[in-house]
Amino acid sequence: MSDKKYYHTLDEYAYFGNDLGAVYSKEKTVFKVWAPSASAVELKIYATGDSSVCTSSHSMTMLENGVWSITLDGDRKNTYYTYLVTVGGALIRQAGKMINIYSATPPQMRLSGKFM
Questions:
Q1: Taking Cα atoms as reference points, which of 81, 67, 76 lies closest to residue 29?
Q2: Is pLDDT of 84 > 50?
């Protein structure tokens, strides 16, 4: 696929919302991530920021323009989370590096964050 064609395809999935990441309220938190080339995205919840033990896992739903979303009820203040993204059959998860996920052999990466 030529670069020009590829960028044109990504333009079709442009997302102009301002609600990616975690949008918190005491009643619920909406998690959204833009991953138009993903075939699956999971939200993983952790008790602490340095924990490798996931306390819960939730499959996300793809919405328009390549945005994946899930809403969790309840007060999620100070919750730690990661997104596990599957692209082309490969799970992408490696912390601490900026990686080209569009390479022929997708490397591993992990997107993570904490909200208040």
A1: 76
A2: yes
Q: Which residue has the tokens 């033990």?
A: 53
Count Cβ atoms below 10 Å from residue 70 Cβ, excluding itself: 16
* pTM check: above 0.85: no
3-state helix, strand, coil in the chain (%, to 5): 10, 40, 45
pLDDT at 94 over 50: no
- The one-letter amino acid at 57: S
DSSP H helices, 2-69, are 3-12
Report which of 64, 85, 82, 79 is spatially closest to residue 24, judged by C-alpha positions.
79
- Rounded to an integer, the average pLDDT of 92-109 is 42
Phi-psi region of 53 (alpha: psi -120 to 50; beta: other; left: phi over 0): beta
In terms of pLDDT, which residue wins out, 106 or 61?
Answer: 61
